[in-house]
Here is the input.
Amino acid sequence: MVLLLQYTLLFASVLILVALGGCFSEHSGVINLGLEGIMVMGALGGALTLKVISPELPAIVIVLAVLLASTVCGVVYSMLLAFACINFKADQTLVGTALNMLAAAAATVIVKTINIAENPDNVSSTVQYVASKKALVVSIGSFQFNWFMLVALLALIAAYVILYKTRFGLRLMACGEHPQAADSVGINVYTMRWAGVLISGMLAGIGGIVYITAGVSEWKFENGVAGFGFLALAVMIFGQWKPVNIGLAALLFGFFRALSNVYSGFDFLAALNIPSSVYNMMPYIISLAVLAFTSANSRAPKAEGIPYDKGSR
Amino acid sequence: MARNNKIEKESFLSKPAIQSIMASLLCIVIGLLIGYIALLIINPVGATEAIITIIKNYFTYPSKAAALKYLGNTLVKASPLLMCALSIQFCYQAGLFNIGAAGQYVAGAGASLFCALSLGLPWYVCLVAALLAGGIFGVIVGLLKAYLNVNEVISGIMLNWIGLYTVNMLLGGVKEVSSPYTLSIANTNPGALIPSLGLEKLFSNNKYVTIAIPLSVIIAIILKIVLSKTVFGYEIKATGIAKDAAKYSGMKEKKNVIVTLFIGGALAGLGAAFLFLTGYEQWSVTQSSVPGMGFNGIAATFLGGLDPIGTIFASYFIQHITSGGSYLDKNVYPSQISDFISSIIIYLCGFVLFFKFFLNGRIRANKERKEGGNK
Amino acid sequence: MALESAYAIEMLGITKRFPGIIANDNVTIQLKKGEIHALLGENGAGKSTLMSVLFGLYQAEEGVIKKDGKVVKINNPNDANDLGIGMVHQHFKLVQCFSVLDNIILGVETTKHGFLQKDVARKKIMELSDKYGLKVDPDAKVEDITVGMQQRTEILKMLYRDNEILIFDEPTAVLTPAEIDELMQIMKNLSKEGKSILFISHKLAEIMAVADRCSVLRRGKYIGTVNIADTNQEELSRMMIGRDVQLVATKEDKTPGDVILHVENMTVPSKLHHNNAVKNVSFDVRSGEIVCIAGIDGNGQTELVYGLSGLENITSGKITLSGKDISHASIRERSLSGMSHIPEDRHKHGLVMDYSLAYNLVLQRYFEPQFSTKYGFLKKKEINNYAEKLIDQYDIRSSQGAPTIARSMSGGNQQKAIIAREIDKDPDLLIAVQPTRGLDVGAIEYIHKQLIARRDEGHAVLLVSLELEEVMSISDRILVMYEGQIVGEFDPKKTTPEELGLYMAGAKRKEAGA
Here is the structure.
């Protein structure tokens, strides 16, 4: 039971971070379908940091270093999206998809190259971080508290405050709703959209490292992040682009994702003898169902997905 | 005057095609260049040789017979890729981004292999099964889109994973005892192999070369005709360009969305059968990632300038460098460098539309200026 | 000390070119301090471009702008704002899901440590609101408030920024007559308080009522500036159009024939809010008459047409076309039963913008045996020939004829193409929704002639219009719509714009349907 709670919170943390990322990007007017790829790059940065950092260092240093590395990777990678979609008005779906594929390929190439450099016979795309991963976790009884849960909670609060209480948030949302209006009062739509995308890069990057350190101590980068970036988008839509709702939606989805990790620990579930594939499918089926019920009346930012062109009014 | 008009019309028509080809070639060159730079970073010593290997693919074999045989292999894989690309391309004409092609491909693979191995059905029935399975996956996306306004990209991705795990479960019963791979069709039910009708002889007796390859090219040509010459194509494209205008004119835009995605799904499903029913590949029931064929199809689609005929060449090219990647020395260069190049090319394709738009704007402006000058 | 300039803003010799056209050709406008200066011109005369240059949205190729006699450079709306120039755009620049207050402060927010200080803003807004008589609810969401309040929000946006030069771009188009009177009063108050106002309009009566001076543009060229006290509507009209125009269309009297369209208790839901947009409406349209639905924008006219054309399902009621019940027929069935529809939004509904003109001209009939084989192939040659015929007959001008992409055509010719397509179907009933919006006088005259020709040939025409002038001049019968209902039926010969205005504003109503 504790394990279920732990995994639920962990996966919910991932979904909160990434969905908030999507939320910032879409509120600025850019649909970020590249979240999946950004997660992979963030995960890569974090995993490599965990790999090379000395496990002897204080836990807080390790946590911060990992956060920093994932943030930087996520932000830098998201620039590719911002550049193409904002400055060159590229098809946001196409570029997002390209980034997902590029991230999977690039991460695999990078990890393999590193592995080969260490040992020419190791052609796997796996990064191991058993030792330093311990720094991320604090045991409270049988519950393993993960620092990233706190990070997700802080991100949630920060997102709420930034979007609804600050000048930046007001301007950001104006750009996603009515960029011409924002432009007419002197707000630089391009700058705000860049900001939205970069924030999404930061959050998705962190989400990536949280995802690959949840439960396991090594990660095979050929596998990417299993559609979690898209699950996060489903969470965002279910949460109607509002931080608090996103938090609740993430808990629901996190629960179903956690079930597939720990169902064998529950006697009554194990006794049902349902194939593991069914549990694996659950989050995707749930999200499909949820989307079916929430999309018809969704309150997406009005101008999302439409490249802003100063010339056309 | 009439002739003048005609010349103008012709030059107008030829321009977009030429632009597309130019843009695609530019993407390829830049993509390969970036790939080369990556190789240089990984290991500068063999980088030049490595990029040449990728480009040469089967030509690395000195004997003509061997080269032909491996050309056959590249074609065997290019044909399902072409089908996935056509799936995405067809849907894109109707304004739909069918990223679910990957899952429709998986569904097609599951259905065709299940029919072949578990039910012992002949190849043509397996093909139909794959077509329907892919089509049904497409229809789900279509229904969700048409009636519940669900973004087809997100529902497509969800269905990719649902499809993967379902097929893993479904084929769990027909796998080899000692490995996670499905049984060999040649040993279990040879009647389920797509016939080659002598095509294999052209490729040094490469038994995987079947009529699937010419069939996929024929399907591409049919799609080209459907899109450019038929009432259905007129409606699909109108729906894609201007959904509201299509509705206004009385087209059933919801029905069109669903039919389009059925056809898209059927194409991708059929593509999977075109590969798995040759026996070239077996399905691994423990695989935990969606096969990349559907995603590579996106690259081929856009590289092909969103035209079925262009897509034939683009699919071949993408498969060519992907196959080429497998000839790299695995202990020096990761073979995924080919995927890396493909995805760079897709990314660059994002700029193509802008590039063309920009170019056309310039041409139009120039023309108007000239015309203005004449007055 | 230099002599203080009498002008708040001067735009001297402004030339602005776009690919293919010269939008402003050496235009000069001088706005005196504290005056209301009207800028008059037809659609496409270059008024909006000129104001966009002043507001920093475009940069002029030639000419200078002076503020208080000093040359200034305006590169973006921020520069304009810094110079105290504010603008109420024709299409409001308001974020629908924001509150009035958020919209007003957007871009000039007061913050403390990065946090918004909305209370400070609210106080200032309420002060301004009291001072100028601009009633708004600062906490209401823009999507929930009336168009009039949205406009007051836009005005408050300028005042909140302490702008001294206020530009109003066609501000009356969306208002009820009462709201227009109120706006005129507000503008006068503002000028009394020392604000200088540029008032863009093509409505002569309003300019006569409120402006001190008027500058006229025609086809991008500056025609002249006159004192309102020394001129009259006829002179302004001549300056605007360049010739005398017969704005009132001529038509013979005609006795209407059989009922073509019969609508009984029709109710249509709204996409925007939960209420029904059209409530229990009944009326007839007969052959040989033009029935006009008049009303202020947003009183259910759009939904009425959606219900008639099938773009929206009606929730109750009955529609009969030439004796056939089409209440629940599909759009295509209605079209085949003899209904044509010139849609309100020609870009969204009327045309597939990236299709050729030829393809667009068969948009309603591409499936007919004339244009496609029984195997589902298009007969391209026939389509082209048909297109050439319509292009000739209806004088549709484009750069390359039938293969021209619709997007590259001018608005007037796009509309001509739609009209040609819809009329050539020879429908029993032609529904035309704001068919002349945004067009110049020549195109307007042309379209009016076409509508009257349909009527004279003995067909039914249902016209939806926001322009009272148009309503009065070409209709045989007028139905006024207010809040989703028909509140009055009038004979144009026996009514006045003033009377119609009262009904349009909801101040009066009578049972319709005789």
The radius of gyration of chain A is 20 Å. Chain A is about 70% helix and 5% strand.
